[in-house]
Amino acid sequence: MTASDFASLTLTPSLLATLQELNYQQMTPIQQQSLPAILAGKDVIAQAQTGSGKTAAFALGMLTKLNVKRFRIQGLVLCPTRELAEQVAKELRTLGRSIHNIKVLTLCGGVPARHQILSLEHGAHILVGTPGRVLDHLQQQRLDLTELSMLVLDEADRMLDMGFLDDVATIAAATPAGRQTLLFSATYPTGIEQLAARLLQHPQRVSVAASASHNAIEQQFFALAGTKPEQAVMLLLHHFQPESCVVFCNTKRVTQQLADALQQHGFSAKALHGDLEQKDRDQTLLQFANKSARILVATDVAARGLDISELDLVINAELAHDADTHTHRIGRTGRAGAKGLAVTLADSKDDYKLSLLQDELSQTIALQALPDAALLNSRPAAADMVTLQIQGGKKQKLRPGDIVGALTRDQQIAFEDVGKIQLHDLWAYVAVKRSAAKKALQILNHDKMKGRNFRAWQL
């Protein structure tokens, strides 16, 4: 047994068995550095990029401490976005699946509060949520955090960026002074230092260098040289032909304009930014994750918490405002040991930003010419999958097996042509191969599931 084995930690046998079942072999660097301190009950400041395994680090610490027989809120994880909160809650439930009767509840904005109020009345062991909605429930006296033993601030730098500092401090003030506090952040600006000083007691600080996370990422830089940014992005997409790509922009307006331009030229592209309705944000993320959309054009804040394991390409349509943000953007690709590619567009006005980035990367940045403009005459590839929405979900007792069973009955559709399925209270989404979409819609609209008919349509 080596120091990087999970078995070297003081984890319960059931948690170790779950890790083995999930094929968690060795600890990642951030887990190896932070978990001993977390399990020892110390406050921890951990600096690491997305995709480094930090969620499992604090989840294992929280689950180890949990007394499931005591039906009180014992753990709270605050996240900047709903997407990240749902991802964290999912990992907590997965890692804690051997703990009988554990209840993990998500409290986020953008969805009606009434369902959350009902769930809170029934109690929970762990809450995962966004600061605004958690504070709202707290102020309405629906939350009792007096028995909280662990508070986690995930992606703390983005919570700071989004103006959640006061909300986080107010929530922390409603928790016991003797709680354990863990702060995870990709960057460590002055504001985070001040927040840590307010909320943490004698913290142990651990850090995984960005270079360790990004050694599988190749970076290329291209000069715009008078080419319009949207045309330059199209040239790069035609040249590299990624199956999945995130294009980063600095503002919501530019993000939407670029997504619209790509769609008009036949690209399978979606926009993701803060001006979208929550339902549209959810559907966009769903379609990108299940390969029904190849390209996601996003702002930095909107893309926080994206968990796309197979991302071939990141394009910076605009150079990030600072080196930390650039590092975080490119960290979306090359995850979990896979090779990744990040390309950045720059103009003469970006000289100062490029010089700062050169210092950060400790390398000379050479701008290369864009691919041949003749590529603009090419036809973009369609997404492999399409997403079908079904008017029925958990409330109608639908299960993923019902949907798969209906589609593959009598081999009408091949099992491998059915992709990811997501179930919500009143809706279900299923991804199917583009070639099977018409047949799948016909089946879902005419055959019965759970003894009744459901309506379905393509997003």
UniProtKB/TrEMBL annotation:
SUPFAM superfamilies recorded: P-loop containing nucleoside triphosphate hydrolases
Q: Which reaction does it catalyse?
A: ATP + H2O = ADP + phosphate + H(+)
* Molecular function terms from GO: ATP binding; hydrolase activity; nucleic acid binding; RNA helicase activity
Domain Helicase C-terminal, chain residue ranges per copy: 228-378
Alphabetically ordered keywords of this record:
ATP-binding, Cytoplasm, Helicase, Hydrolase, Nucleotide-binding
Location of the DEAD-box RNA helicase Q domain = 4-32
Q: What is this protein called?
A: DEAD-box ATP-dependent RNA helicase RhpA
